[in-house]
């Protein structure tokens, strides 16, 4: 395997605007901007926020507002959504919001779209009301967004002002095989949530590549994989730091969602064997360790799956440790 295999791969960041135990959402937004500014200096390609609702430890519910905040505090890095959960919104509103962002920050805004609610069923009902089953309209809504962004839409009765005629790349997000077919059919780039849904990753990107139809947006398939990253000076330190993300995922599988907790020496005192296996299964595509350890594992991952871009998400409690992890990870690509 070519030791320089990471050199030509763009690397990016997914931020869930994680709220730390003992801190507030306002603190989170401040640190997110600092990490985005550092990421820009370190050559990261894009900085995305994910839409989630009704989660104590995740403050990225008003995703478009956060994108504007970070785009306004940076100069070059692309900023976008990973993703906007389209069934939660009317396509026209999304087109207007992202048209506004793209007008303020030209050629820097990405629109990643997901079909999941980004929350529990009760909250999804509160968001969507009578449109509760609107996930079934996802392909049609994506088509409508393309129409609203098209310069040819100027004669239509419904127009996105701003938005119409602007260059806003649309990505399809996936955590199962469903969206892979849609991304392939429409010839759009495909971003897979392998950081929490590893079971379908291999199958989904295979479906996407095998069924891809070239489009005006993309000539060849383009796969971005999102993975968990905890990098530190030693494997032991990284393992300690990773106890925070493991406890976070334990909260996901047990339904006890909390703010991100500080690291603990003995993670095994927090879970039983079944819970441990469930968390480790969800965290299968995680890169935890020193830069040297992660580099070997990441090169193997890239070689095996041929991904075009890597997106890292890092749930690390200590802000300086998170900045250091971000720096170590960027170093693997240069």
From TrEMBL:
The UniProt similarity line reads: To bacterial alkanal monooxygenase alpha and beta chains.
What name does UniProt use for this protein?
A: LLM class flavin-dependent oxidoreductase
List the EC numbers from the record. 1.-.-.-
Task: Give one Pfam hit by family name.
Answer: Bac_luciferase
Reply yes or no: does the keyword Oxidoreductase apply: yes
Origin, by domain of life? Answer: Bacteria
What InterPro entries does the database record attribute to this sequence? Answer: Bact_Lucif_Oxidored (IPR050766), CmoO-like (IPR019949), Luciferase-like_dom (IPR011251), Luciferase-like_sf (IPR036661)
Kindly give the PANTHER family that the UniProt entry links to this protein. Answer: LUCIFERASE-LIKE MONOOXYGENASE
Q: Enumerate the spans annotated as Luciferase-like domain.
A: 17-303
Keyword annotations of the record: Oxidoreductase
GO MF annotation, one: oxidoreductase activity
